[in-house]
Design brief:
Blueprint (H helix, E strand, L loop, with lengths): L1 H22 L11 E2 L3 E2 H6 L2 E3 L2 E9 L9 E7 L6 E7 L11 E9 L9 H4 E11 L8 E8 L8 E8 L13 E2 L6 E10 L8 E10 L4 H20 L1
Parallel strand pairs: 1-3
Antiparallel strand pairs: 2-5, 3-4, 4-7, 5-6, 6-13, 7-12, 8-11, 8-13, 9-10, 9-12
Length: 242
């Protein structure tokens, strides 16, 4: 009985995905118009949001000495894993950061969108599960390195704090890299991410920072399916009248 219900819900979700795409229910820009994330200059990412699989990444703001260096690099990858796909954002400064660079702050959003290369609509079948932060150093330079990754679900500095993953060197009271894994509540489609990182020790040097986002697959509740069908049906009725 449970298996049959699951099959029906999955079939319903796939059917709804077509309706959602047809009527623009997702509310995001058409995914076909979004560039696919490639290894790129960070400056390019600052003016061009991009999609990797079913995730849209959008730069909001960034500050720090040398943040506009054209050699600053960004890589966004997607790894398919049995327990849930993993999206990783890696920022690599043109030259390793030292205590002379001061703090860097990078704000960006990551949101679930429909991947046009799959038969289903990931807005209905995927959700965030957890995130974590990490960094890389070379040799004996893991000293005084601090990365704070704070995430909200409503706005930067908003009232809906998802959590914080902090990766810090052992000599300043941290656990090194990566930081702790933070769970994400279900049904959150968009995350507001703030990375704050710096090096406080003259012996420290930071090569790059990473943000990991794990997702999981779910089957929507029957009430959610009915709600989406109602919205899609209303859209169809309006179209017929016009």
């Amino acid at each position: 009985m449970i298996t049959n219900i699951s099959r029906q819900l999955t079939t319903g979700a796939l059917a709804i995905a077509g309706s959602v795409a047809a009527f623009g229910f997702a509310g995001a820009a058409p995914v076909q118009a979004q560039a696919v994330c490639l290894p790129q200059s960070f400056n390019n990412f600052k003016t061009n949001p991009c999609r990797k699989g079913d995730k849209l990444f959008t730069h909001i703001s960034s500050t720090g000495i040398g943040i506009n260096d054209p050699a600053n690099f960004l890589t966004i990858t997607e790894t398919v894993l049995p327990l849930g796909d993993l999206h990783t954002v890696t920022f690599t400064p043109a030259t390793p950061l030292t205590s002379l660079a001061g703090p860097y702050v990078i704000d960006y959003t990551i949101e679930i969108v429909d991947n046009p290369n799959t038969p289903d609509n990931e807005l209905l079948t995927k959700m965030f599960e957890a995130f974590s932060a990490g960094y890389t150093t070379t040799g004996q330079t893991d000293s005084g390195v601090s990365l704070n990754k704070t995430v909200w679900s409503d706005a930067f500095g908003g009232t809906s704090l998802v959590g914080t993953s902090e990766a810090k060197s052992l000599d300043i009271g941290g656990i090194g890299s990566p930081g702790l894994t933070v769970p994400v509540d279900p049904n959150i489609l968009k995350l507001y991410v703030r990375d704050t990182f710096f090096v406080s020790s003259v012996n420290g040097s930071l090569n790059s920072i990473t943000n990991d986002f794990r997702q999981t697959t779910y089957i929507p509740e029957p009430s959610a399916i009915l709600g989406v069908l109602a919205v899609a049906g209303a859209g169809a009725f309006v179209r017929r009248k016009s």
